[in-house]
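re: that chain from earlier
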Amino acid sequence: MNQRAWIVALSLTLAALSLRCAGPREMARIAEAPPLVTEAETTATTGMRAAAPTALSGLDTVRAGRFDTGRLWTFEEPPLDYWEATYGFRPDSAWLARARLGALRLVFESGRCSGAFVSPNGLVVTNHHCTWESLDLIDRPGEALLEEGFYADSLRGERRLPGLYAEQLLEARDVTELIVRGLEEIRDDVERERLRNRRLERLKQQLEAEARDRDTTLHVEIVPLYYGARYTAYTWRRYHDVRLVMTPELRVGYFGGDFDNFTYPRYALDISFLRVYGPDGRPLESPWYFPWRTEGARRGQLVFAVGNPGATQRHLTVSQLEFERDYTLPQRLRLLRRRAEVLERYIRQQPDSADIYGLRSVYFALKNTIKATEGQLRGLRDPYLLARKQAAERALRDSMMASDSLRNYFGNVFMQLEALQRSKAAAAPQTAAFQFFGTSTLLSSHILLRALFGYAHDLMRQRGAFPSRLEELRREALRIRDWPDSVEVGYITARLEELRDYLGPQHPSVQRLLGDRSPAEVARDLVARTALKDSVAFARLLREGYLNSGDASVPVIEVLGPLYFTLGQQLDQFEARERFLNARLAALRFAVYGHSVPPDGTGTLRIADGRIEGYPYNGTLAPPFTTFLGMYDRFYSFRGRGGWNLPARWLTPPEAFERATPLNLAASTDISGGSSGSALIDQDLHLVGVVFDSNIEGLAGEYVYMPDRGMRAVAVDSRGVLEALRDLYGADRLVLELTTGKLIPDEATAEAALVGEVE
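^ sequence. v structure.
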């Protein structure tokens, strides 16, 4: 649902603003406290026959697990009693504060990752794949940092990464009552959403002003938890000066390529080191960091993943998951595969140009998303997974029916959600035709995206939009980069084919766009004649008035624009209704389970417990650790072909290099998209690994967390990182900083320090 945020914003801006709101009233209270449920039950709900999910044949005895909704705990509500009962470990507030302040959220143009301080000198560890986009921006003539890697052998050589900043979570404040008071009394879903959004914006501005009075580096974000049943205001400290220290070659950072992606056993050095600098231009001094555990972790050891997991959907109903299975994911896969084919063809034909445009990173991101989406769809097609979700849903219904106040207050929420899915299904073809059309620079033609911005900009200007909003839209539009003509032709062709196939070849808009020509013919003609493929020309047209420019793209967007925004308004109705019902459902779940059930992932900081452990797979056992020996086995087994190639330095390592050193590990800690780069720490707050992936079994964890079914987080082992840095990269100053905490200015100083240690 986040993919449509831009549509909604533009739709609301273009709509009339003279809407009156009902006065706020007190929200209805639940007088009778429901029983606390600690384990999911499987008893069928009585009296709810029409709304109850249909039992799956032969699976009606499946039980839900205690943590099917995950273990992505917030720092505001850590499960101290559970940790103590399960692991015999109850951290105090000082431990939790250090864990929170040692972690970072890394933000770049097209996404987010996690990271962590690993020295008192601002040194940060994250994943290699979290820096792909940035490497394209700092390449100098003759360099190819993504392919060749990078190591700054001195502080002066560390390169600033444009467009990337780091955030550290300082405070979390519950602001639920300030947001939701009286909202449920408003019957119109869109009106309720608008009032809620206005409250959110006003409160955010107020809290951010207060924060910046204290410190200009502070930034406030208000995040809905439990689908809006709770709201938390997070205050982050933002660091803008982030520099690259070291990243390995793509061949080892992404070893195994797409074939090994989301698999285990795994053999990848998916690691990068950055450094945060303070406003004085010096390395940041930070007392909060995770010292590097040189001896690593052991089998069965308690560990915590600390990072910023992206959105999960574990609190959705079975009817919502069935809609995902039947519509959302299959339609998304078609779109992703078609775009990946376009990029693959271009990269194969123009490899040097692909690096200039940064298309190789885009392609990797798409392939990664395709494999993740395939795993999610496979999970939703697994009858056992849906049976577990049904069991959990029945347990929640039972608890609701056992309480008069809960039954009266929430009793129809499941039926309303089921009815909404039927309405969404009726609109699914139109939704698929415009999927990601105006919301993604990775999945949309940049020409069509610029045309959409120009269309919206001119209409908003005609309707008297505030200059500040127009300027904001203009700045966003000018961030769109130029792409090669052949990629544009491929992307536009794919979009026109989707419009034809989903809307039908006889649809009036499809007829206006295509006439008697094919999608490919229209795309080639448009790319040949439009000025929107050039950023300078686009800026001029935007300034002078795009719709009156006579550009070849104007007739196309005058067909697509009205359709797109009309669809946006319809989807806005659906999504507003679904958010409201999801919040009601979450409020029911919260009333029954309280904080014993964590909220879904939201891209904000979480801490997840688990153990270092393997699991049964493919008729055998996956070990808790893999070693460099396994990497070399893959290399020689495939003779260096495909994604199993190695750089020259790895083929002739020094004698000191120990190939039996652990390289990757598996842990039962809960993760999701966005967890990349999360620190894996032990009870002493030492770093033992860096999370970089899920195994293939874990992809269905988007919907239900099942470590008993082999779901695992995959991490780079702290020992393997040191072994590679020391013996393969000669990164002595980096190794010394990780092992001693001392800031080493250059390699000469590092060598002198090492000689001194030997003496």
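The CA atoms of residues 503 and 680 lie 48 Å apart.
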